[in-house]
Backbone:
């Protein structure tokens, strides 16, 4: 008798979702096969199925130990889910489908249940193959990391390595998506452009848009600056460009004088400072002398001494037009002594001491016009009376200068106001006066004048030595201010032919 053990082969083939099992035998045997196990896919078993087989053989003389027939059966039914099921020896097997929550790293996941083309991105710290595997969109060294602005890689919303997006702005030439990604504020063609003086933004060392700094032109008034050099005006005040009247003392020449020097202040305005203290100067007053510079002013001068021309009927005074000393009539009508024993009752008349009878060749008190004065338009000889005119030129007096009761004066529109209509000179003309017997002749009168100034009104006193054929002006009014005598004033002029 012999016992034969025949080998039995069990083959497992995976085709799609179908499983085909084959069992083959030769000879007569009694074989039992059990132990099919389904597991999750692994690297060694990507389909998720493993198989085990156990067999026993028994028999005599090549006959089955039982009934001599094969007791193993194989079927290939399909379950209602569409997965093929296999039954062998009475065992049914279901395939396991990978999912993103099965606790296994499968179906191209980069880590357990995350990453890859099918599952959600992985959290920081998980394994990854590229940025798309990470919820942080940053895969560095096959590990998902949280992007940082100093991690040395371009990640997150950075437009270049560790800059742009939420990180600090990128330098020139680095990647960008908009102007805010660039230190220069200018993104051109996806790269940060270098600052320029015409790019319409404040960048580089500019203190305001396209101006200031060491490269661009100076800024206009009102724009931001950090120093004078940032401004066209060369004056930065309180962080803004301001207008400048000067840049140096040389610009302040108009403030120079004998006693001052023009300086340019820190506020870029010109002002005068005292200079040449104690040194001689000229105050442009012809009748003073000895002036010196005192605290920026030419002062301390003393009047020119003209006392050598003073006598009983004259006072020596300086002519302010030329600085020359002149004798001016004084003490008019007061007694004097001409040192002539043959004269008596002398009095000062127009600067001369003359006797009572021969001192005046013509006298007029304007009690009337018996002397025959020529009266032009508006001129009158009448009793004076006050007027009510403007403060310029002023008002006529209430009384004349003499002690007589006639109160007579010669004037224009006595007691009224002069009209504002422009006209030629209106004159009062004396009768001819014979001065041939006089060695010197003086015209003296008392004046109470109220007159506007040129070009609105002009007054003058003239004398003629040829009966009115030609005239010489002795005095005249000029420009502003008005002439507004507050009292009667004596006027004297030398009319010696």
Residues:
């Amino acid at each position: 008798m012999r016992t034969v053990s025949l080998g039995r082969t069990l083959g497992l083939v995976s085709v799609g979702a179908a499983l085909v099992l084959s069992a083959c035998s030769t000879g007569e045997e009694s074989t039992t096969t059990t132990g099919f196990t389904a597991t999750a896919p692994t690297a060694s078993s990507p389909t998720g199925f493993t198989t085990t087989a156990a067999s026993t053989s028994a028999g005599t003389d090549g006959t089955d130990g039982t009934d001599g027939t094969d007791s193993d059966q194989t079927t290939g039914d399909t379950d209602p889910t569409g997965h093929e099921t296999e039954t062998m020896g009475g065992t049914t097997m279901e395939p396991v489908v990978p999912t993103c929550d099965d606790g296994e790293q499968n179906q191209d996941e980069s880590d357990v249940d995350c990453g890859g083309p099918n599952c959600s991105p992985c959290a920081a710290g998980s394994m990854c193959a590229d940025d798309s595997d990470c919820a942080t969109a940053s895969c560095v060294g096959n590990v998902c990391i949280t992007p940082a602005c100093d991690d040395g890689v371009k990640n997150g919303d950075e437009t270049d390595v560790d800059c742009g997006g939420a990180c600090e702005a990128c330098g020139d030439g680095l990647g960008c998506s908009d102007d805010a990604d660039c230190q220069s504020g200018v993104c051109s063609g996806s790269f940060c452009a270098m600052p320029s003086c015409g790019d319409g933004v404040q960048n580089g060392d500019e203190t305001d848009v396209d101006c200031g700094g060491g490269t661009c032109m100076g800024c206009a008034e009102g724009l931001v600056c950090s120093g004078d050099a940032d401004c066209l005006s060369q004056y930065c005040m309180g962080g803004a460009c301001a207008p400048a009247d000067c840049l140096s003392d040389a610009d302040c020449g108009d403030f120079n004088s004998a006693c001052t020097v023009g300086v340019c202040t820190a506020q870029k305005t010109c002002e005068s400072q005292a200079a040449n203290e104690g040194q001689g100067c000229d105050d442009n007053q012809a009748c003073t002398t000895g002036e010196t510079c005192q605290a920026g002013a030419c002062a301390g001068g003393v009047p020119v001494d003209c006392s050598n021309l003073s006598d009983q009927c004259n006072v020596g005074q300086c002519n302010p037009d030329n600085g020359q000393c002149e004798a001016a009539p004084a003490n008019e009508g007061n007694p004097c002594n001409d040192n002539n024993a043959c004269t008596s009752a002398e009095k000062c008349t127009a600067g001369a001491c003359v006797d009572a009878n021969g001192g005046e060749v013509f006298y007029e008190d304007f009690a009337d016009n018996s002397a025959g004065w020529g009266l032009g338009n508006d001129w009158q000889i009448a009793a004076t009376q006050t007027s009510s005119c403007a403060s310029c030129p002023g008002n006529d007096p209430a009384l004349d200068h003499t002690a007589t009761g006639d109160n007579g004066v010669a004037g224009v529109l006595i007691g009224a106001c002069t009209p504002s209509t422009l006209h030629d000179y209106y004159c009062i003309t004396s009768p001819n006066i014979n001065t041939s017997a006089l060695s010197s002749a003086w015209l003296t009168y008392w004046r109470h004048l109220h007159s506007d100034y040129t070009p609105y009104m002009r007054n003058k006193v003239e004398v003629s030595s040829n009966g009115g054929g030609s005239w010489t002006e002795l005095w005249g009014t000029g420009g502003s201010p008005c002439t507004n005598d507050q009292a009667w004033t004596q006027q004297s002029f030398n009319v010696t032919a």
